[in-house]
Structure formats: C-alpha cells, structure tokens
Amino acid sequence: xxxxxxTGASTGIGWACAKLLxxxxxxxxxxxxxxxxxxxxxxEFGANFTPLIFDVTDDAxxxxxxxxxxSALNSETLAGLVNNAGIAVSGPVLELAADEFRRxxxxxxxGPIIATRAFGPLLGADPSLKGPKGRIVMMSSVAGKNGNPIxxxxxxxxxxxxxxxxxxRRELMLFGIDVIIIAPGAVKTPIWDKAEEVxxxxxxxxxxxxxxxxxxxxxxxxxxxxxxxEAIAEKVFGALTxxxxxxxxxxxxxxxxxxxxxxxxKRMLDRIIAKRLGLTPPA
Length: 283
Prior knowledge:
Blueprint lengths: L2 E4 L5 H12 L3 E6 L2 H11 L3 E5 L5 H15 L6 E4 L14 H22 L15 E5 L12 H20 L6 E7 L5 H4 L15 H17 L3 H13 L6 E4 L3 H9 L2 H12 L6
Parallel strand pairs: 1-2, 1-4, 2-3, 4-5, 5-6, 6-7
Helix pairs in contact: 1-8, 3-4, 4-5
C-alpha cells in the first residue's frame, strides 16, 4: 500500500484528495490544525487514514510529525506529498498592513517549504529507504500566472510557489523525485464562503470601497459556480500515478477565460478588468 501526506486535509480540496486516494487504495496521512478535525476525519475515513496535527508554519511540529510518519512507513518510501494547505488574504496593497502579506506568505509559501524539507527525505532523498521514488504535488492556482486587483497577497504567494516548484523540480532530479503543479481556477470550497465574513468597514473612506463590494459579490458567485473539489482530486491522483505527468495542470470552470488571460496583451486585460470593476481615476 502506497502512502501519501496531504496538508490541509480538513475540508475542500484536501478532504476530496484524501477521500479519492483512500478509495483507490492509498494510505493517507492528512494534516489538520485541530483535534476535533482529526477525530472527525478519522471517523469519516477509517483505518487507512492517519490524522497529523500541525500548523504548516510550525517548523518543529512538522519535523516531529515527519518522524512519526517515517516510523509508520517501516523503511518504505512515501509515494507523495501534496502541499495543499493555504489561505487567501485580500485587500488593496496601498492599504493592507505588511503583516497581512507576511501571514499570507508564511502559510502559502513558507509552509510548503517546511513540509517539503520535512517529508522530502521520505520521498526517496534518503537512500536508506526502500521503494519507488515519491512525488510532490504543489497546489497552486490560476493566480500563480496572473494577478487580479485586491488579491495581490494571494497571487504573490502562488507566483512564489510556482517559482519554487520550478527550481525544486530540477534540484530533485538528483533523487528521481518529481514536482508537479496543480493550478485550479475557482473551486467550490469553504474559502469562498469566508468572503462574506470579511469586514470591509475599515475601508469605508477608501477609494477602493466600491471595488471591494463588487469583488466580494464576485467571489461569492465563484463559490457557487466553481469546480467540485473532486475534479481537482482527480488531477492530483493523476499527478501522483501517471507514468509521465506534465509539470503543470490547469483546471478551471472556464478554460476559455484562462486561455484568453494567457494570450491577450496585458494592457488589454488591464482595460477589461478596469471596466468590470470601475477602476476609473477621479477627474
């Protein structure tokens, strides 16, 4: 039985990945931050699921858990590490505290580095382990190649993750460990529901307030019309099992929109976005 570690397994994409991989014969170690989530997932998933309790930004906790996973593997390699845990911070750059950017980068960028350093030896960088080399799946986003207003922290973190993945993939060729990026568009997960909870009253005197209101409505709509998490889980399964996976998979509700964003001149995209969001300078 091959084993996989998934960070951020409590809900959404992480939960769907755990469910699909378990159904297809994997043993799954899934990270959560709360004991209540660990107990719930253990009840939902059964004997082949082992909850790991840590915050991806806690270097010592992740390393300690990696030692536990090593012991459970009994000298076998880990088949995969799915760096999925993430958050989305939003706000206009000129008015968002630098600490909010730090929080975003700590979870979405430093977190995968900590997890990769901790579990990388178990994927086959440690020559004492037996079995096929494992793979790392980085959960990026279409925002990893594009940036929209008000979501600069999130987009910056995913751009950074993609740059990390590109370099890491080439470094880990030394050990035969592959790195594959999954870049989803909008997905039906609880992350979108939180948009309604965001307090934008702090921006009541900001020139960005009308745009923030439009974007909140837009994000709530994305949560209703996005892809099911199971569709992303299928891509993760392929990334872990296909003989020759691509280096990057894009999956979005509107592939044409993603394609156009990749081929249209940036200035043209700027004008389209400005028109939609009312980004008109004062007279």
